Amino acid sequence: MIRIKILPLLAVFLFVLAVSCNSSQQKEQKVSKGYDLVRLNRIADVQKELIAKGQVGSNQVVIFKDGEVIYDSIVNSGLKGDENITDDTLFPIWSMTKPITTVAAMILFEEGKFLLDDPIEKYLPEMANLQCLDEQGKVYPCKKSVTIFDVLAHQTGWGYYPRNIDGQHVLLSDLWYQDLEDFSKSMASIPLQFEPGTRYLYGINTSILGRLIEVISKKSLYDFMKERILIPLEMNHTKFHLTDEELKRLHPLLWTEGEVTGFYKHKYNELTYSKEPKLHFGGAGLVSTTKDYGNFCEMLLNKGTFKGHQILSPSSIDLMNTPINPELDKGTFIGASTGFSLYNLTDPVRDGGLSPKGIFGWGGYHATLFWIDHKNNLYGLIMDRSSYSAREMFIKVRIATYQALR
Predict the structure, then answer these.
(1) Whole-number Å distance between alpha carbons of 76 and 156
(2) What was the pLDDT predicted at 288?
(3) How many structural domains are present in the chain?
(4) Last residue of a domain, one of 186, 210, 230
(5) Using an 8 Å Cβ cutoff, are 253 and 234 in contact?
(6) 267: helix, strand or coil
(7) Which end of the chain, C or N, has fewer beta carbons within 10 A?
């Protein structure tokens, strides 16, 4: 394992802050036939470059290959309001919650608790008699029911429904609903953008899936996750709710609003992470540490197993990342199709990341990212917290990774 903690060289931040390089340290330097360490060190150059551009603050990249961490690079910005990353740092992972919720659903699927073509009103009565919108925006009774497959594949017709609260754009809040049952009933009142199963639209689907898991398992989503995923994977710091002490460990968010850029500990959290709301958003609500989420990635890389615990079968892992929807032409994952809340790289040339066809993974609202590569037996994990697009970081880190492989 190589672990590098670096403060970047002098850089001019977007809002004119200086960064100084105080230390550079490497541990357990080793030579491997599988990769070139000198070339792998270019990952840290990418991390420093994007801090200098004002796109990220302190950030961490982990590369795991052939059963061990071969690279672990923390680059701290030293900028006012930012904080150094430690093993205890908590990151809101937002949509990287989705693959965990999807794994929870697939556990129930393997146990025969539901079929993919089951209509969701079989479990959620409020979803009977949904309304759809035609091309002119006119409301009419949907001709088809939403199926669990539609929910998993983001083909329901539900999108995201952000609100403007006191001049702040809020994507999702756990203060808007009492629990997932209340959330589900509220979503049932919103007309679908199209007939279920006919198109792809990224949205609140995985939080609806969380409610389905609650009804089918007869447990809260968090309790089911803890029992079947988080505890077996030793993800002890991955949770929906935080204590006051844990809230202090949240990584600051780099946020730009108008001409003002800064680091914010809580102002733009959107979710409270409080124990009071009994709401577990399966599509966005978890916080995690780098080590915790790395264990989840390791399970996906190992086709469903972790330290002897089989969470899912290899066939379920394959099903989850099978390309279903058309290739994305904008956003972070251009050149990739999507499956069950996972992208799958289908056009490596268009992607431009030197990565093989078939890598899969996902990302979060605040720029956390991961990918799984079965061909090279590796995963990559990027942890930071920024409101900027993560596309440049995602591509450049992968370029730096794959040019180092032998």
Answers:
(1) 41
(2) 98
(3) 2
(4) 230
(5) no
(6) coil
(7) C
